[in-house]
Design a protein that fits this description.
It comes from Basilea psittacipulmonis DSM 24701. Keywords: DNA damage, DNA repair, DNA replication, Hydrolase, Magnesium, Metal-binding, Mutator protein. It holds the Pfam family NUDIX. By secondary structure, the chain is an alpha/beta fold. It folds into 2 domains: 5-130, Nucleoside Triphosphate Pyrophosphohydrolase; 134-312, TIM Barrel, CATH 3.20.20. It contains 8 helices and 15 strands. An 8-stranded parallel beta barrel has the order 8-9-10-11-12-13-14-15. It has a 4-stranded mixed β-sheet with strand order 4-1-6-5, covered by helices on one side. It has a 3-stranded antiparallel β-sheet with strand order 3-2-7, with no helix packed on it. α4 links the parallel β9 and β10. The N and C termini lie far apart (62 Å). The relative contact order is 0.11.
Length: 320
């Protein structure tokens, strides 16, 4: 017999400083009582996801949503039913949070928390939320430019960059100098407590020296499973929906999709555009970074079209 199916709107509610997210404990008398989850509820007939979520958060937590964006859609099977979870990122809200169903709630840091009994469908979301919003890609090219790159990274860190990809396909100097450059960038990132991933054009032995790998689409397609365990991050570069679907198949943690806007590095190739980002983001259940013509000012636009964050070699409003 086919299990009952529910469509559910779920809110990732951020604290005012965007550093924590809200989780609620399921009330007594409901299924999975006392387990922790992201707040939300059933989408009623005729409701959009945003309207359903706004209604549920008002009824459950006494808050009014003032800014939210569509994010992931995940299907999950429980013993008694299946659910399609429509996650929205709630970046701004008004009101005093109260558990109107007598449920407990708690602000948590996704990187470290003491909650036990987290709903299975919420666990992978917590891992996603450990990713930073902004992702920079190196373009050093030669050893004599390394110091300039480190200065640029330091300024980018001050502007919110939380993750760096070491990617040097145009390297002009020796392999030994390339390895030295990698070691210096790695030490610099870790000194500043930023994540460093290595592009798959570089030796595999470097991936685990860093915090993971950014797979080129042409490398990802030859894999049948994720190449590193969950102690490391695995990203996939994507240029169309098929790449995103394959990234999901091998259980990558995220994808970088582009180019979204016109960019000098792809001057003769048409951009995907914002609508493609929105459409593709609803077809996969993994965070997507928008790349191509990005600037810090475009982060909110990217979020509004389903992205988790932005990535770039050159950020258009970069200040050094």
């Amino acid at each position: 017999m086919q299990k009952p199916h529910l469509n559910v709107a779920v809110g990732i509610i951020y604290s005012k400083d965007q550093s924590k997210v809200l989780m609620a404990q399921r009330p007594k008398g409901k299924s999975w009582e006392d387990w922790w989850e992201f707040p939300g509820g059933k989408i009623e007939a005729g409701e959009t996801v945003s309207k359903a979520l706004a209604r549920e958060l008002k009824e459950e937590l006494n808050i009014d949503v003032t800014q939210s964006y569509p994010w992931l859609v995940m299907n999950f099977e429980y013993p008694t039913h299946t659910v399609e979870l429509h996650f929205e990122q709630v970046l701004a809200w008004q009101g005093e949070i109260k558990g109107l169903e007598n449920q407990l709630f708690q602000w948590i840091d996704p990187h470290q928390h003491n909650l036990t009994q987290i709903l299975p469908a919420s666990e992978p979301i917590l891992r996603c939320l450990q990713l930073p919003r902004q992702y920079a890609i190196t373009d050093i090219q030669s050893f004599d430019q390394l110091d300039n790159q480190l200065k640029k990274l330091e300024s980018l860190f001050q502007q919110g960059i939380g993750m760096v990809q070491f990617r040097e396909p145009k390297w002009k100097d020796s392999k030994q100098q390339l390895e030295q450059a990698f070691s210096k960038v790695q030490a610099f990132c870790h000194q500043h407590q930023k994540l460093l991933l290595v592009n798959s054009c570089h030796p595999k032995s470097w991936w685990q020296q860093a915090d993971g790998v950014q797979l080129r689409a042409c490398d990802a397609i030859f894999l049948e499973e994720r190449p590193l365990n969950k102690d490391y991050w695995v990203g996939v570069s994507a240029h169309h929906l098929a790449d995103l679907l394959y990234a999901q198949k091998i259980e990558a943690d995220f994808a970088v999709l582009g180019h979204i806007l016109d960019t000098p590095s792809h001057a003769h190739e048409p951009a995907l555009g914002w609508e493609a980002l929105h459409t593709f983001s609803q077809e996969v259940s993994l965070p997507i970074y928008a790349i191509g013509g990005m600037s810090f000012k475009l982060l909110e636009t990217a979020l509004s079209h389903g992205a988790y964050g932005i990535a770039g070699i050159r950020f258009n409003d970069f200040v050094c």
